[in-house]
């Protein structure tokens, strides 16, 4: 009897799940279902901490009635943080395959224009244009594909395509790109794979990720201040409420310390034009093994780095070449007083 009842419940659950999967196809994919569950849990956590505060703190409710602008700003920050979270998680980090497709399409278009023109081939060469180090890069095509020629010219001479070809995607990787095993794709300027966001952090969404951390840190700090204010004025009242608030405050304090450290770490990465992968796994990157530890090969100065990070993401297919030996020697030279006065670090 129990077995038949259990089987009937299982069949009912399977039919209900199949019906939901037809309306919501993302539920049929275990990976996407896990990502949606994680996003739902994060939203619930965001609602839980302020919800408990407004439920128990009568003084805060009175303050909201007297000064509604205070709570309005807090709610605005709360909504902006969640919106930034979903925008960042839904933004492409910049996949190498997408960049290769864009280059191939431009190459095919140039070939069609060449064939359509009545000019002889010797007077007009097809070319591919893509942003490299802030300038438009034009390269005449030879036997190799446009993408391969473009990428190989970013590396020092003598490097073979086999050295920089991804063994998983079979795509020629530009400098700073890496294959993500979670996304199963190569990412431009790969930083790390964020479990909370369910996506990689790369060139296309690193700036949005920084803003999300900043907003999350501000929201956590403000909520912690509200919790401390409650405990100061209500510590001698209901003990069970104090225990709940202290536990929530302890969890929030741990989160705040983590967020502050993460924010400072990424500020350092931005100012030196590095990624987490390049900093942590430097010795595993083939083209960076011969570079001294304290030399950042892609560093262009603080001001230029900030500009590229904040304003240089209009095209996620911006690629950087490896610096020449003379440039590395210049970066390795110690700073002097004259360099500081001449803003060499900027």
Automatic annotation (TrEMBL):
InterPro entries the UniProt entry points to: Palmitoyltrfase_DHHC, PFA4/ZDH16/20/ERF2-like
Mode of membrane association: Multi-pass membrane protein
Major localization class: membrane
Transmembrane segments: 36-56, 68-87, 209-231, 243-265
MF GO annotations: protein-cysteine S-palmitoyltransferase activity
Alphabetical GO biological process terms: protein targeting to membrane
Enzyme class, spelled out: transferase
PROSITE patterns, alphabetized: DHHC
Keywords assigned by UniProt, alphabetized: Acyltransferase, Lipoprotein, Membrane, Palmitate, Transferase, Transmembrane, Transmembrane helix
Domains: entry comment: The DHHC domain is required for palmitoyltransferase activity.
Name by which UniProt lists this protein: S-acyltransferase
Organism: Handroanthus impetiginosus
